[in-house]
Amino acid sequence: MAGNRTLTIIKPDAFGAGKAGKIIAHLEQQGFKVLAARVMRLTDRQAGEFYAVHRERPFYRSLVTFMTSGACMPMLLEKRDAVAALRQAIGATDPAEAEAGTVRKLFAESKERNAIHASDSDDNGVREAAFFFPDTDVLAAQG
Ligand code: GDP
Fold first, then answer.
1. DSSP code string of 66-131
2. Could you tell me if the CB of 8 is within 6 A of ligand 1?
């Protein structure tokens, strides 16, 4: 059964441009509840580890440089069937291909500087939540 929690990150492009409040309001309007949040600047090592799955991709270094270029805002969100709901709410990776009304269509600059991250599966949601919120047990009730 799909879980009710997922991990998101307001990326440095959007956070640095002062769009965090609007993005959170947009998500709250769609029924997401913020369970935990922090503001931090990722180290090269943290960003590299977080995106390790993309290590062999040509954009990996550029992505890590972007994700360490300024503060970002990881958040743990709750909603029914949260992973699928948030993936739908953020839109396609490339804002040019994202549907109207999605976070990326509204707030993203480019395929790389695309405003927001969202976990793509329940398993990754659990792993990514633990990455940023190791001291919380809010994921324990997943399911
Ligand atoms: P997501 O799940 O929609 O975030 O997309 P992916 O997991 O495929 O990629 C992770 C992140 O890498 C994306 O959100 C973008 O910031 C970046 N990215 C993906 N594809 C490209 C690309 O073709 N070029 C560049 N420069 N960055 C990309």
1. HHTSS-BEEEEEE-TTHHHHHHHHH--SSGGGSPTTSHHHHH--SSSS-SEEE-SSHHHHHHHHHH
2. no
